[in-house]
Amino acid sequence: MKDIEQQISELMAKMTLDQKAGQITQPEREFITPADVKKYHIGSILSGGGSVPGDNKPDDWIKMNDEYWAASMEEDEDHLAIPIIYGVDAIHGNTNVIGSVVFPHNIGLGAAHDPDLIERIAAVTAKEITATGVDWTFAPTLAVARNSHWGRTYESYSENPKIVTEYAPRFVKGLQGDFQEDKVIACVKHWVGDGATLHGIDQGDMCISEEELRKLHVPPYKAAIDAGVLTVMVSLSSWFGEKCHGHKFLITDLLKKELGFDGFVVSDWDGIDYLNDDYEEAVVMSMNAGMDMFMVTEKWREFIGHIKTSVENGRIPMERLDDAVRRILRVKYKFGMFTKPRPAQRKMSLQNSCFGCLEHREVAREAVQKSLVMLKNDNDILPLDKNSRILVAGKNAHNRGHQCGGFTVAWQGVNDNETVASSSYSDKDTVSERDTDIEASYDTSNSKIVGGTSIWESIQKVAPNAVLCIDGRDADPGKQDVAIVVIGEVPYAEMLGDIRVEGLAKGLKISKGSTSRDTLPGEDIPIMKKGPYGTHLYLHQLHPEDIETIRRITSKGIPVVTVMICGRPLVVTQELDASQAFVVAWFPGSEGQGVADVIFGDMDIQGKLSFSWPRYDDENLNVGDENYDPLFHYGYGLEYKK
Ligand code: BGC
Questions:
Q1: Which of 108, 172, 216, 329 meets the CB 3.0–4.6 Å disulfide criterion with 586?
Q2: How far apart are the first and last CA of the chain?
């Protein structure tokens, strides 16, 4: 058999400039038809979070991918058959798609400290992706988040590179395996230092030395590259003011030459737009810095035009374009794309019955069990007796959408079990500003999370004497022995999850959909009206309704066990003081049952903080810092008495 490099050379010898320019181009699905794929020789397409075909079932995805694939594989005198690759954000399960299993977000997995589990999660995710005819996911995120104000903190396994570096190769292995039919191409992101920006501003500026960059942020990538990861996505942030998307040292010298990465580098969502006001200049800068594939969601025709002119006039050397094309083709050959049947005829498409199946959900349930961290357990109130008379309250008690967080069905996440959740807002005074915004800002239609259980549903299954009252008004010590109050954050993604102190809020840049549309794929809300999540990390100010619900119940003399849904450590001194026990559940995903398993003692509680927990908003301490004295240190987590 000819070796891959030889096959690539033979194919490239036949490729025209048009075909090469198309091969490095990745439009968003809303802006490209199968006919365009053939006409412009497009190499890849993506779905932005929440950008979905038809009714958003696996079959709709297979049909769409089949059509794009067929267009890319037509061979005639103007067109070469080169299979297209389709990319999605399956960052905690294939969660764009209705009915997929939803795993805990990475921050919870970091607390589980279990690399074997990580590989199994990635393997299930790969299966659920292949069930939709897709070949590539923009995961895992290898951010080492160093400031919890960052809206993407939950995408990070830990503030400590040790855990991220341990997980990176396992996740890559679980996704890619040996490129069998139930595997997908992985993409580690966002190269590099996305979790290191000043004030935790999304897409902000990383002001750290090269030494610190190499010590804290590069090691996870090295581990992933050594494990054979095929693609890397560049960060939308900057290093001392210079955008990573145009950073030759970071992309070519460090990533490709020094770390020996021989797959392809993809830009993030319209990321080259910010390099220069002159788009042609931006295209040239990024290409010459070493970018190989370009996520140019809507302006892809313009992009192709600039690539062609700049190669023709010599501003982009032909060798650079050839290198980019070779890298993309190398990934396609290595992954076996040229010999795979069309998406509709792949084994995983024909037998996609395991999509969202119980076997997959069991892995997610185990992940939830292992990710819970107990911060307080006075008088050993936990685990609870299943026969206790239990009041279940709190706005996140019965809302599968809330517990899944961002990047679930819609980019910003969804609000599910809406009818019940809204009863918590019955008292106008308890509604924080944030909640009114949120009501208007994300998808509030019901039944978006199909399968799994809310935390209330999971408690109800095992505790016969439990009742639900979201705002806690029915608290009655004559009727209840204890309350479980589920509080915390509501879903968010990227810059809309930032906590930005006053003054910094103004600098909010929204890259998605902001160029020509004022709504996002799959969402009918005008995104430009949204702002960051808040201005500080104090939960009692972000969500005053939570402490009010807790106090409403404790004032009647009923002890409260608090379960917190969140994507980062928050300052929760008041809520902690008012609770007899306090458990952090992060964004656990669809399998709420994992929470009940632990609270009632069927499983031990074993999660340990992979992030330091702050006493005040302004400390921003990470393990190893000077004067390190957080409220709960890295690695903290109580266990049940044996
Ligand atoms: C995010 C990436 C994501 C991409 C595609 C960007 O806004 O930064 O993490 O993969 O969109 O949805």
A1: 108
A2: 60
